[in-house]
């Protein structure tokens, strides 16, 4: 009921003509559990990931949104007062209605939300095949069953997957692009052959709570992960050869990523100390991100281009507040990337790909486009989701600053959060996301490299070679 009262209070303030609605969120953070939210009597909403135009002191300014922003939030809440319910989040302006249903849906709600970055990337592939989606659902459900020890359910899903592979093989292979059928057959056969070993591992006896059970769970998750990787490879073969996302001519001069790339970043502590993850110490944090040009070709292209130039090497973390970890602002000069010979930073437009559309839209939020409830192909619902920072009132002000969202289902409930459709999500952290909990302001990105997919980067205008060997 606390959420309902919060929303009613906002609406009441708007109806009374108040120009300010002050929200404060105290975000409590620990390494043993995800970021959690507590509300205090004097509440101000968490600051959004804006461009930072000054030095480290900007974090203080970034923690307050302008009066205009508060008034807009309150006004939008008042318009929707009739739809208020206990399930409505405290950010009603972008509350999405879309709910796919089921654990594996890319947009869901509550405890059933899909927070798996790899799964979200599979759902983001530009393919439409009901049989491969059905197979994906069964195989991914196993990953949800294993940690909570729903072993019978896991075996049931695996048996269903086995039947799908047997009965729908011809249909699955028909969706494969030309000249890739042999590889697809190998992958499909390998997935089928991997089912029995996983079922055997699931059925291995182990005392509840014992070290043997812990080892069993780890083994099962490892085997399931191997199957999921093969599933990803199979689905990628369904993307048409030379598939290209259309980009408006006005943005043709910007780098574009037509496909996906993998970026690896290494971060070290500013004071030389170690990263602490639940008591385990690490000299450095290694993050691996998949950058998705199929859903955000311009935003992803800009990012991969900057990584390939070495722009983020030695860059410091400028914000870490339990909501986002942000970087990309040079120590001096303009707040973004200035190409050689240019006087102003290179700007990238806001890029949002709405589910069901044929291409991304540019320069507008979904709310401004009249589709505030629309689901996006890359939702902000995984810990470590990548977003492009921008000025709150200038949609096309992105340049080099980006953020990792520290997703929390209470603060940013998937399908109902205030990030989807308002900021450009362009990928996910697929390895090392837990390190983000211990990354602080002043920590340094010692290296950033494109380890896969640099060939998918399409540059226009003056060609600049990467600053390192690819």
Automatic annotation (TrEMBL):
Its EC number is 5.2.1.8. Keywords: Isomerase, Rotamase, Thylakoid. It is an enzyme of class 5 (isomerase). Transmembrane segments: none annotated. Residues 38-66 are annotated as: Disordered. It comes from the Eukaryota. Residues 274-470 form the PPIase cyclophilin-type domain. One of its GO terms (molecular function) is peptidyl-prolyl cis-trans isomerase activity. Residues 38-49 have a biased composition (Low complexity). CDD domains: cyclophilin_TLP40_like. This is peptidylprolyl isomerase. The lineage of its organism: Eukaryota, Sar, Alveolata, Colpodellida, Vitrellaceae.
């Amino acid at each position: 009921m606390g959420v309902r009262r919060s929303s009613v209070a906002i609406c009441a303030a708007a109806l009374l003509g108040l120009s300010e609605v002050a929200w404060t969120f105290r975000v409590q953070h620990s390494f043993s559990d995800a970021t959690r939210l507590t509300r205090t009597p004097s509440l101000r909403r968490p600051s959004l990931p804006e461009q930072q135009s000054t030095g480290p002191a900007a974090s203080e300014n970034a923690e307050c949104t302008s009066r205009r922003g508060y008034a807009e939030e309150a006004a939008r809440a008042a318009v929707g007062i009739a739809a208020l319910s206990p399930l409505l989040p405290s950010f009603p302006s972008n509350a999405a209605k879309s709910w796919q249903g089921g654990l594996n849906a890319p947009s869901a709600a509550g405890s059933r939300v899909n927070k798996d970055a790899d799964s979200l990337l599979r759902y983001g592939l530009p393919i439409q095949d009901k049989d491969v989606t059905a197979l994906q659902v069964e195989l991914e459900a196993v990953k949800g069953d294993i940690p909570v020890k729903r072993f019978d359910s896991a075996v049931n899903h695996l048996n269903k997957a086995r039947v799908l592979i047997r009965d729908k093989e011809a249909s699955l292979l028909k969706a494969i692009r030309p000249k890739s059928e042999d590889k697809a057959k190998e992958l499909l056969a390998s997935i089928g052959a991997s089912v029995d070993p996983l079922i055997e591992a699931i059925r291995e006896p182990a005392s509840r709570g014992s070290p043997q059970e812990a080892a069993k769970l780890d083994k099962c998750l490892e085997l399931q992960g191997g199957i999921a990787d093969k599933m990803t490879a199979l689905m990628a073969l369904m993307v048409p050869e030379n598939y290209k996302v259309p980009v408006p001519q006005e943005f043709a001069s910007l780098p574009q990523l037509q496909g996906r790339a993998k970026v690896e970043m290494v971060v070290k502590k500013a004071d030389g100390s170690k990263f602490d993850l639940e008591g385990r110490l690490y000299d450095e944090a290694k993050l691996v991100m998949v950058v998705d040009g199929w859903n955000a070709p311009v935003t992803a292209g800009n990012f991969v281009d900057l990584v390939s130039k070495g722009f983020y090497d030695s860059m410091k973390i400028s914000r870490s507040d339990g909501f986002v970890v942000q970087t990309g602002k040079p120590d001096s000069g303009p707040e973004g990337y200035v190409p050689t010979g240019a006087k102003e930073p290179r700007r990238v437009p806001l890029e949002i790909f709405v589910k069901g559309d044929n291409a991304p839209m540019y320069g507008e939020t979904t709310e401004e486009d009249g589709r505030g409830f629309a689901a996006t192909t890359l939702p902000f619902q995984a810990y470590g989701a990548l977003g492009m920072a921008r000025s709150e009132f200038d949609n096309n002000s992105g340049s080099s600053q980006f953020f990792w969202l520290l997703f929390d289902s209470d603060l940013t409930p998937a399908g109902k959060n205030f990030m989807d459709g308002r900021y450009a999500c362009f990928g996910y952290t697929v390895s090392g996301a837990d390190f983000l909990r211990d990354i602080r302001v002043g920590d340094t990105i010692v290296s950033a490299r494109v380890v896969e997919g640099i060939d998918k980067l399409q540059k226009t205008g003056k060609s600049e070679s990467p600053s390192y060997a690819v």
